[in-house]
Design goal:
The structure is a homodimer.
Chain A (H helix, E strand, L loop, with lengths): L3 H11 L5 E5 L12 E2 L9 E2 L3 E4 L6 E8 L13 E5 L11 E4 L3 E3 L3 E4 L9 E2 L10 E3 L7 H9 L4 E5 L4 E6 L3 E2 L10 E2 L2 H10 L6 E6 L3 H14 L2 E5 L10 H7 L3 E5 L3 E2 L5 E5 L2 E6 L3 H19 L10 E5 L3 E2 L5 E8 L3 E4 L9 H5 L2 E5 L5 E2 L4 E6 L2
Parallel strand pairs in A: 5-6, 13-16, 13-17, 14-15, 17-21, 19-24, 22-25
Antiparallel strand pairs in A: 1-12, 2-11, 3-10, 4-6, 4-7, 5-9, 8-9, 18-20, 20-21, 22-28, 23-27, 24-25, 24-26, 26-28
Helix pairs in contact in A: 1-6, 3-6, 4-5
EC number (chains A, B): 2.10.1.1
Function (chains A, B): Catalyzes the insertion of molybdate into adenylated molybdopterin with the concomitant release of AMP.
Pathway (chains A, B): Cofactor biosynthesis; molybdopterin biosynthesis
Chain lengths: 390, 390
């Protein structure tokens, strides 16, 4: 049995980054850049007006003749005399002979001339070529997460393809003779299988959408055979159930017989103690406890960061936050506790129903309060660390 | 021109909830329940062992004969004499004649009998029928967000279908003769069209995945015709560009001619002032500014909460947080500022590059600092309000 911190460190050390692939920017939300991106153009590509108004060469004059119109998208490079200006719109090309744009609200205009009532500073309201970024400058360094704003920036530079870390292929293997698929009749002694849907949804929240779910009978032969196939086809394998000490739990043996190296088994925590972590080549295996709340707890603490590590994220552990405790906590287990909790900007409330079989409280929780194994009491009003899970 | 708070209130008042639909639990992540859900079963459905161990009737004895095995999934209701126990595993059926389970670690076992070394309390390690939830009790009230844990809980009760608020159909209409599709050659005076990809990605982050993008020329006839079609087919319409005061901006006129009621036009803010909000029947129309950073700012402040309102979310405005400011802020605009910023648990830094045309800073920002219109100075170390956008 190892400590929580050791388990996290072992998983992190084994969660190598995935290979790269090229994808369209339009599909890149949530991926992480594997290579830096260089701008192919200056942005803006030309001197642009930042306002609707009139472009002219700044001088001592206040009156100008209007000799043309520059709309966004035009490229009419009007030759301007010092006495001349052009009507111009936001985003439009500023003629080479002009250096300043006056807002239309600051002029009195007739059909063919303007009188500037409020003279702008020289060069005002003109966005210079390359002001935002210059051709061949770095747009984003490697390991940048692709957000909506990043997609907008890449697109505005005309970039259509980028190189990112692939997402890992993830499979879920469900074991347990007691399990019945929701929708079927529940015969005596059976319960509904819920972990696979729950884990699929949890994976979806971090961008893993294609997940294969396999179900096997609780026996060594079936488990071994299923794993042989699954280990070849996936980079992360989640196994639900069959990893406790019970005489009928075959998962660990089936893993070892398939050449999976055990990296740890059992963690000094509650819930979620009976977890196996191992690897075979580049494939990571998490055998999660069968109890739903234990399974989801360990997903958030361990699987979450492993998946994100593999996808190239820089900050893979969920950002931990600190809040004032609304309840007293007693920990007489000698284990690290992960307590379902509801936090706000100021404080955090430990929820009722912490049993490892119960999902009720998990469904309303937005964080897990961490109580270290060597801490026996935390009093109301003291600060605690929380893993946000919303 | 209206205030930011007024704009938010008008949008909220007009963002009615969408009609309901029934969907499989397996596809319900991110939806909001339209009706409460009732449990069809007791959970657990029978008295379950919470441990691997031995089930027996608590008494004064320490020694018991083992008369059978109860595995998870079995339903062998062993008749037990007071001198008898059954081997039992986690999740397995506890025989009616037994009331207590002793952990296997606390017994000395031979092949056919056990001696209990550490006697548990009566009723220990038995999960009672309906302990988690009883048949016909409320699982979730209406307006509950479906999280991974909620999916797990619904599935474990055997529930396969739930009634949720539909997601709104969203279309994006892009206007602007200056715009060229990324991937094509950029001729003089033109820029790449990036807002549609950016807004699609932003919508994806809140679960809107099927988005139709339409592009029209900057003229009244084309805009009017496109809108006629789009307004009929969608519940939310985002229009990018064409809503400033420029003589070539036809969007507002095209909207009014299509029977869209103007609810406001222009907000006293920077960036993002030139925005139109209107409605026609149940369809909401946001005509967003063409500048990318203005467009995305207004997405997060206005569109985001409108979409979530319509999807049935209870807390539709992004949770605002408060942090200590790392820089001085000067606001001599008389407008509400939304400043791209990077916050951590303690403080917030205002980023360089706040121009409405620039996405550079937006791509690294994780929040927008709100500077109210009537606040001229905020000093380093003072507290500011942030809209998180990560």
């Amino acid at each position: 049995m190892i400590k929580v911190e050791e388990a996290i460190a072992i998983i992190e050390a084994n969660s190598t980054k995935m290979p790269w692939k090229s994808i369209p920017v339009s599909k890149a939300l949530g991926y992480v850049l594997a290579e830096k991106v260089i701008s192919p153009i200056n942005m803006p590509p030309f001197r642009q007006s930042a306002m609707d108004g009139y472009a002219f060469k700044h001088g001592i004059r206040h009156q100008y003749d209007i000799v043309g119109i520059s709309q966004a998208g035009d490229h009419s490079n009007f030759k301007l005399k010092p006495t001349e200006a052009v009507r111009i719109f936001t985003g439009a090309y500023v003629p080479n002979d002009a250096d300043t744009v006056v807002m239309q609200e600051h002029v009195m205009a007739s059909e063919d001339s303007i009188l500037i009532a409020k003279m702008p500073e020289p060069f005002a309201n003109v966005r210079n070529k390359g002001e935002q970024i210059k051709a061949n400058d770095v747009v984003f360094e490697a390991n940048t997460l692709i957000t909506p704003a990043a997609i907008g920036f890449l697109a505005c530079l005309g970039i259509t393809e980028i190189t990112v870390y692939k997402k890992p292929k993830v499979a879920i293997l469900v074991t347990g003779n007691e399990l019945v698929k929701p929708g079927k009749k529940l015969s005596k002694g059976k319960i509904y299988e819920s972990n696979s849907l729950m884990l699929q949804a949890a994976l979806q929240t971090i961008g893993i959408n294609k997940i294969k779910v396999h179900t096997v009978k609780d026996n060594l032969k079936a488990t071994k055979k299923a794993l042989q196939f699954i280990l070849k086809k996936n980079e992360i394998v989640l196994i639900s159930g069959g990893i406790s000490v019970g005489d009928y739990d075959f998962v660990k043996e089936a893993l070892l017989k398939n050449g999976v190296e055990e990296l740890f088994y059992k963690i000094n925590q509650k819930p979620g103690k009976p977890m196996f972590f191992g690897s075979k080549k580049d494939t990571l295996v998490f055998a999660l406890p069968g109890n739903p709340a234990s399974s989801l707890t360990n997903f958030y603490i361990y699987v979450y960061s492993a998946v994100k590590n593999r996808m190239g994220f820089s900050n893979t552990n969920l950002l931990k936050i600190v809040r004032k405790l609304d309840n007293d906590i007693v920990n007489n287990t000698g284990k690290t506790l992960f307590l379902k909790a509801l936090y706000n900007e100021i404080s955090v409330e430990i929820l009722d129903g912490q049993s490892s079989a119960m999902l009720n409280s998990f469904a309303v929780a937005n964080g897990l309060v961490i109580v270290p194994e060597d801490v026996e009491n935390i009093k109301k009003g003291e600060l605690v660390t929380i893993l946000p899970i919303d």
